[in-house]
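Please predict the structure of the following assembly.
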Amino acid sequence: MPQPAVIAPAVIAVAGAAKAFGAVRALDGVDFAIRSGECVGLVGHNGAGKSTLVNVLNGGLTPDRGEIVAAGEARATYDVAVARGVGIRCVFQELSLCPNLTVAENVRVLREGSGGFGWRNRAAATVRESLDRIFPGHGISGHAGLGGLSIAQRQMVEIAIAFLDVGAPPRLVILDEPTSSLDARRGRELIAHVRRFCAGGGAVVFISHILSEVLEISDRVVVMKDGRVAADRPTAGLDARGLVSAMGSVARERAARRAQPARSGTPLLTHGSLAAWPGEIVGLAGLAGHGQSEALAALYLAASSGWRTGRDPRAAFVAGDRQVDGVFPLWSILWNTTTTVLPDMTRSGGFVDRAAEAAFGAEWRERLAIRAPGMDVPIVSLSGGNQQKALFARALGSRAPVVLMDDPMRGVDIGTKQDVYARIRTEADGGRTFLWYSTETDEVCLCDRVYVFREGKVAATLGGDEVTEENIIAASFGGGHA
Amino acid sequence: MTAFAARPWIWSWIAMAAVWGATVLFTGGASAAGVTHAALTFAAFSVMVGIGQMFVITLGPGNVDLSIPATMTLAGTLSLKAIDAWGGGTLVGLGVSLLVGLGVGIANFTLIRALRIPPIIATLSTSFIFQSTAIWANRGIRIKPPDALAGFSTDMTLGVPNVAWIALVLTVAAWVLLERTIFGRRVLAIGQNMRAARLAGVPVDGVRFATYILCALLASLAGFLLASFSGGAALNMGAEYLLTSIAVVVIGGSSVAGGNSNVPGIWGASLFMFLLVTMLNTYGLGAGVRLILTGLIIIAVIVAAGGRTRTR
């Protein structure tokens, strides 16, 4: 196995890095190095330590033990300022730009570019140039407020800022789940840009749960498991199955298409031309930001009341944009999972049955394998994927006959995804209805029927064997399938 | 230390005990019983309005009820007037004051929800209406409470003022409501993220409506008792409770940003606020110095309590 740190000077190398958060050992002696011109894929389950390693590399976290060598020098103190000084940039999984500022202002907050008169226009011009280079036809103004952009556009801006060629030139860009909010086309453009960047001598750490992307883009793959490096191999000769088994799960073949559930009577719910019958898995597809999330939110708001809790809930919602739509940051994991089902655990007089609540938490912790020291630890101490599992438990544990899912797999590892897919199928066979917006074509192809959205409306409806990647992409761009 | 830091209300209790000790020591221990009795009596009114304000502030940024003073005045005025006009004694007065609270809560939330006016503006506007109604109803005549009611509101039971007993019962009820019921859980959820709460099935409008009514009911009850206690309603009787109701919530360790509240701190902070003024009076300081010191000490307590914020 090649040892890159010996062959050429590494942009950054860490040796024996360890970091614990209370009882959780997020990093347990990790050696990691990356050279110029190299693209390293970093994979592993939720909570394997990927995000912690990223935070050590970008100077955000100081490891409890371990050495750091950056740009050829051993660093006694290594923090965000040092990391930026040697050209290490980071795109976070939890989007980190300020929603109340414009794109240009965000650039300036990150101390990129110069101040003085006209800094807004200069910053807007540089970020637009970077956006044009990576995502042609992005349609984002440098003066647009971040809060008004869709999650995909925010992700594109964040990526563009990371690759900006101002200040200390970028030598290593760390991309943590960069494609999870991007649709297929934007994902391809990003991969192409990463290739160009590495060919020009830059280095990239690419973190993704989408293994085909990792295999396509990287020269070398590092697999993390339980806070350690489980494997470090050149990509050539690896396949998805090998990676999955290195991560500690068994790869499963895609299950055959479900038998179409029999439709009877009127649809359970409708929204414009969109309709869903009991027991169906209905997909919402199309390019990101074309009204899928809005449609799901509107469906949920129509199916539930803001004034009172009905005897039987009609729908439950799984948020994809966790920080905005899902997580209660001051609460424990347990309280975050029981928000929707709480009326079922309430005795007369409005008292919460805390024993029943704890039992619900324990049951779903096991079912979804939520990795945490306990259900009463704060939810924000969890990795993004594990937070998402808590939100799944919130909806799946309810009695609602319809579950609305707003691109819910962002940051979820492949093992959990397989489990959730299987659970969705089982529950759909049992009569539950799922409406599932996803930016991943693989997931959309699991659906019985797919509505492809374009510019806020349903542009095409695909059923049964028509649900293929080609048809979805064609319809997304107005390819004329009807 | 972690168990200690997990109880933000502890700081208001420490400050309260320190100020009580400083006052009693200054008078050589002679004033202990008198100071304690007065503090319990006056803190009781702050506690009642403080609990209501706490629930409202817990609803999240922008939520505050500025109509508390006007509500107190209106409830005090109308309830004593009703007793005077219709007879029936305490129960009629209590009934009228609670009806006033219900009406105030409905009016406030109607403006907030139906007309989408920010709570701070809505409750400020309604408070002018409530205050004017009180002036119109009162016409400058101070109606005395019946003797039985006046006696009850100034008496003690088991050595503790009756109003303090009422406040204590309300405090326990508020704690149970916040910590043990689905309503409390939902208030805390809305305070952290209203959109996420709605999408998780919390009936956001209903819970906010109930919370504004709860706050107005507590303010009305406090107004009724305060008017009975002080021998009749006065038009400025609620004035000092505007800042007090907010201050006891903040000093008591509840988060101004919402979503995180605690009930015991309301008592510590209410006693502290009264004792602080008493202490500075006992020292015989001039009015200007007293106000400056009051401000500085409150800031010191908030800084001490705020040093241990939770991670994120």
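Residues 268 and 298 of chain A are 15 Å apart (CA to CA). Chain A has a mean pLDDT of 84.
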